[in-house]
Amino acid sequence: MAGVSRRKLLGTAGATGLVLGAAGGAVGYGARPAEATPLASVGTDEVMFHGKHQSGITQGLQARGHLVAFDLAAGAGRKEAAALMRRWSETARRLMAGEAMTQDDTDVARDAGPSSLTVTFGFGHSFFARTGLAKQRPVALDPLPDFSSDQLDKARSNGDLWVQIGANDALVAFHALRAIQKDAGGAARVRWQMNGFNRSPGATSHPMTARNLMGQLDGTRNPKPTESDFDRRIFVPSSGDPSWMADGSYAVVRRIRMLLDDWERLSVAAQENVIGRRKSNGAALTGGTETTAMDLEKADAQGNLVVPLNAHARITRPDQNGGAAMLRRPFSYHDGFDADGVPDAGLLFVCWQADPLRGFVPVQRKLDRGDALSQFIRHEASGLFAVPGGAAEGEYVGQRLLE
Ligand code: HEM
Description:
The protein has 403 residues and is of the alpha+beta class. The chain has one domain (41-140, 148-205, 212-402). The protein has nine helices and nine strands. The chain has helices at 78-96, 125-130, 170-184, 230-234, 260-265, 268-275, 312-315, 360-368, 399-402, and strands spanning 64-72, 118-123, 161-167, 188-197, 249-258, 327-328, 331-337, 343-353, 377-387. The strands form two sheets. Strands 5, 6, 7, 8 and 9 form a five-stranded antiparallel β-sheet that branches. Strands 2-3-1-4 form a four-stranded antiparallel β-sheet. The chain is globular and about 70 Å long. The two termini are 33 Å apart. Bound molecules: protoporphyrin IX containing FE. Protoporphyrin IX containing FE (HEM) binds next to strand 5, helix 7, strand 8 and helix 8.
């Protein structure tokens, strides 16, 4: 059995199901991500499978991630989908608890604890017609609008089913990915898969918001679970519309390539004007620390705004977008170098919201008109998934839809 011996039993912090580090502190996203976990507890940290919400939404960033979409096999419908969700839920529950698979475990995660493993399941637009459930499809799953700067690869976009796997150990994450793929059996086939990473727990002695591959602190202004409007912004209300989405959320997934050669040619000062924040500590260009409020009106001696009008961190603010907000919980990716030496690297941008039309869509519409960052990135794949609420004990994820 894989790593159950010395694992600490860690509970969830209220409804959000935050993982607790060894010191008992919540490792919430946007607080201090994975780095806050003392190294000794990396393997033993456990996130609960059962809960009000699915795991993998409010937990701190994990060092490894796999995003994988499946399409139902020809002939597979609602019955097969229900059986698959039941299998997947049991696998997720076992592995998140650090238990081995009952049959044919590959031993890949042997000796490791659950390492904050989370497994999150979602349904894409096409799932509902295939399972005869078109009437149950939420309006919020209507396809995202086309954006003028999109260069999307259809083969790596969307899909009937989506699984997000995250863990603080690469072997634990792969072990879960392989188990999920094998569980699919004849019912579903992998449509696309993407692999990502974040900083490893313990890598820095002064924990701070994680950096992306452009070197910026990314996640500073994320909504925090402690804020009174957090649930309203991120989760579908418990009253649910449709009811099977109660306490669920919508995930927008974008594979965003960073044009790193162009970016890295900029001076640090120019890079900081693109975002509107300092590269060193994430503080707004108007001063203070990472958490000091940005002064949107402040001008320099020549009368120019200190945070340029097209700076990414100005344009994306909720107060510039009719209150639109989302929880960004990305992984970085690097899929090697093109033949001409250009890195195929960037952000597996995953953002969570109660309604994409009050989150991702209005903000991306604005970015699409050209913020300063746009010329250094390229959206190459896209997905939108309905992620139902968490499964209660004895339930599987999606049961309220499929039974
Ligand atoms: C803020 C980077 C794409 C939405 C930020 C910040 C950075 C950043 C460095 C400032 C620190 C922070 O508050 O996190 C990037 C990079 C991107 C990217 C490198 C692409 C590779 C996007 C996209 C969206 C988005 C596609 C949504 C459509 C936001 C939001 C904020 C933000 C909502 C916070 C605004 C606030 O509340 O003040 N981003 N971003 N970003 N970004 Fe992005």
